Automatic annotation (TrEMBL):
Transmembrane stretches, start-end: 46-68
Name of this protein: Membrane protein
PANTHER family, sorted: BLL3101 PROTEIN
Domain of life per record: Bacteria
Species annotation: Pseudovibrio japonicus
Length: 233
């Protein structure tokens, strides 16, 4: 019997390849291989990646929700406690303002129609309360017609025992200078009375129709009436 000795295994080295960097064509070459050890690093694991996606979604959707439901349109025009948005309902309205009006279902006055001002605080900075007595006094800018309406925090008509929640300038008692005084309270008051009621908050909306601020004559803040707290129950 012939014995065949085992031949030793010899590792044949692979030919060495020298990579030459070429600024014009190197961008076409494949990415270098990443060591498998890097895949075991924490930042390459699956759950941190999922967590970052979840956080991004919460922040993105949450900020959009707050902007559309609790935000205020841009380009505000302020006069005391009154805030208006002259670009609302026009082609100059920004996307956020357009989305806010679309989300809330509010219909702004169109360009050339007028401008609406809202007040949610009195002149002392206190939040308006539908159970308190307020006095709105002063004058409004030159306009064909203006109205004053009592709304709740959702900017819906306030439910009152009197069955109405608004006044207009054609039925307003004024002096010879155009100065007026409106008593806002749940109970009836002599003179100009704007009834309120309920517990869903209070916001005053004053709409000025055919005012120069909507016809291109200017965008400076007009002088608006004062909102004074008289007393609460």
């Amino acid at each position: 019997m012939t014995h065949t000795p085992h031949m030793p295994l010899v590792a044949v080295p692979e030919p060495e390849t020298t990579q030459i960097y070429d600024g014009e064509t190197s961008w076409q070459k494949p990415w270098p291989r990443i060591s498998p050890l890097l895949y075991k690093a924490p930042f390459f694991s699956f759950w941190p990646f999922v967590l970052s996606i979840v956080i991004a979604l919460i922040v993105g959707i949450g900020s959009a929700y707050l902007s559309l439901n609790r935000g205020s349109p841009f380009s505000a025009l302020e006069s005391g406690v009154w805030v208006g948005h002259p670009h609302a309902g026009t082609i100059d309205s920004d996307p956020y303002s357009t989305a806010i009006f679309a989300r809330t279902g509010r219909v702004p006055l169109g360009s050339g129609e007028g401008i609406a001002f809202y007040a949610a605080f009195d002149d002392s900075g206190r939040v308006l309360d539908p159970q308190c007595h307020y006095r709105i006094s002063g004058r409004v800018p030159s306009t064909r017609l203006w109205t004053i309406t009592a709304l709740n925090n959702a900017l819906e008509l306030l439910a009152t025992d009197a069955g109405r929640a608004s006044l207009h300038s054609h039925g307003m008692l004024m002096d010879h200078t155009g100065t007026f005084s409106i008593d806002v309270a749940p109970e009836a008051r002599p003179g100009n009375w704007l009834p309120t009621g309920g517990n869903s908050g209070l916001v005053f909306a004053m709409r000025l129709y055919d005012i120069p601020y909507t016809t291109g004559a200017g965008l400076s803040a007009p002088v608006m009436p004062a909102v004074e707290l008289v007393g609460c129950k």
